[in-house]
Write a structure and sequence with these properties.
Blueprint lengths: L1 E4 L2 E5 L3 E6 L12 E6 H18 L2 H11 L4 H21 L16
Antiparallel strand pairs: 1-2, 2-3, 3-4
Helix pairs in contact: 2-3
Length: 111
């Protein structure tokens, strides 16, 4: 999967997510392109947590629509699953509470 937007390019090789930008985002590299590779398993966990935040904040529907409009190579899989995802989001948003996601985590070992 790859994603290109403006000066930012992201792609996965199956083991790591690679992020590159032509624009400097730090005084340390004012005139250079920069990039980083992050293990895909770490990014999967981040993406899952970020999706939960988008759900909680009521932003998931808009994020999916914006991703579909980008028509990057990763959007084909999203396009295929978007009807079910959007149905899930709609059902979730109708019962979403105002709970704060920053509350202490649930201990799964508690009875």
């Amino acid at each position: 999967m790859s994603y290109f937007r403006g000066d930012t390019y992201l792609w996965s090789d199956g083991e790591a997510l690679h992020l590159w930008t032509r624009r400097s985002y730090s005084p340390a590299n004012e005139s250079y392109s920069s990039g980083v590779s992050i293990p895909e398993a770490v990014m999967d966990q981040f993406a899952t947590m970020r999706f939960a935040e988008l759900l909680q904040n009521g932003q998931a529907h808009a994020a999916i629509k914006a991703s579909l409009e980008s028509e990057n190579s990763g959007s084909a899989c999203l396009r295929m699953h978007s009807p079910a995802l959007l149905d899930f989001i709609d059902a979730f948003e109708t019962r979403r509470s105002s709970d704060d996601c920053r509350s202490p985590p649930i201990n799964r070992n508690d009875p």
